[in-house]
Amino acid sequence: MAIDEDVEKVRPFMEGITYPVLMDADHLLTELYAISNVPSVLMIDESDRIVQPNWNAYATNTFKDYTGIESSDQVEIIRRWVVDGTPMMTVEEAKTAVGDLSEDEEQARLYFRIATSLRNSGDEEGAARNFDRAAELAPHDWTIRRAMMPLRGGDPFGEEFVALAAEFNAAGRPFHGVAPKRPSQA
User: Fold this and answer.
1) Residue 68 in domain
2) What is residue 185's predicted lDDT score, i.e. its pLDDT?
3) Is residue 1 part of a domain?
4) Omega before 39 cis (within 30°)?
5) What whole-number percentage of the chain has pLDDT above 90?
6) Is residue 145 domain-resident?
């Protein structure tokens, strides 16, 4: 699931992927599942039950310098679930593993929506004001802060991203979801 607006900008990252990639330009799923950091993994079983909510896991070590997360540990946990049917937690545990967004985070999502709507209607000044307010309310919410970068003409992989990552690290890497685990912890 990509939370981007422009399919063509996401297309290079889809090369070699053999499953459907969905676009969530309106960030509806990030709101529904209280996702505040990307990438996030949700594991859904054959009965459409979430067996692992909002989990900060990576398939490669591309972002290890920013996250400190070893991808092989997370891949092994996924492999165990797929091959052996052993999830990281029970369905009951998954229901309460991730709390709701805070009031500020909810407000930030609303300001972000208003900003994108104003931007799409040509009101750049109104959009900027609302993007700023969203960032102020949820300063470590990557689904807002990083997503607004290209919407404001920035590069989501450039200097602004590096500065956001430094802020995130300085704040202790706050993550709204289940913390990464070693396979022995799962």
Assistant:
1) yes
2) 62
3) no
4) yes
5) 20
6) yes
